[in-house]
Amino acid sequence: MRRLLLMAAVALLGLTAMAQANQDPYYARRATLFDELPIGKKDIVMLGNSLTDGCEFNELLNNKHIKNRGIVGDIVQGMIDRIGPIIKGQPKKLFIMCGVNDISHDVSADSIARATERLICMVKQGSPRTKIYLQSLLPFNNDVREWKLLKGRDHVVVEANVLLEQVARRQGVTWINLYPLFADEQGRLRAELTNDGLHLMGPGYLIWRDMIKPYIK
Question: How far apart are CA 2 and CA 143, in angstroms?
């Protein structure tokens, strides 16, 4: 029964990702552009959702080899669906951040971790020399702005991070725990780092930059 439920959940995620690509013009524009842009063996790829999409990592880190592959609204299955061109390029490094949009779709922490592990396994199999860095989910703050689909789900971020760290250890990839740097005493995204409770302002990206800088080098 558990296996059947898991298969159903994976199938649902797949349908959600396809529907997302078909219904969201921005998602389709970004995804099809990324299909055409080349990835090389010296490149460092930032794979993620709107948090990644919203940053100019190559400028912040002064590194022309950094390629942003973030798309607003993306879920883990969406990243699985579009990982092919990245694997084909055999990049030097891959930084992954995923999961918050899955939480807004009422996906469990366990399902997020399982899908993320599948994504990592695909990269390891298709591009074994790529160094993989799995980054934690960031907190959000519904006191700054109410995100109805995330209301009351702060605990899922914490649960998912625990499971994702286990995935990183199990798969032998580097775990980068960003969460403590962005969380206030109540476990919410620090209000001074956001203007909408979910996405980062410039100072937030500087914190992120400083955390990953040693791994970029």
Answer: 37
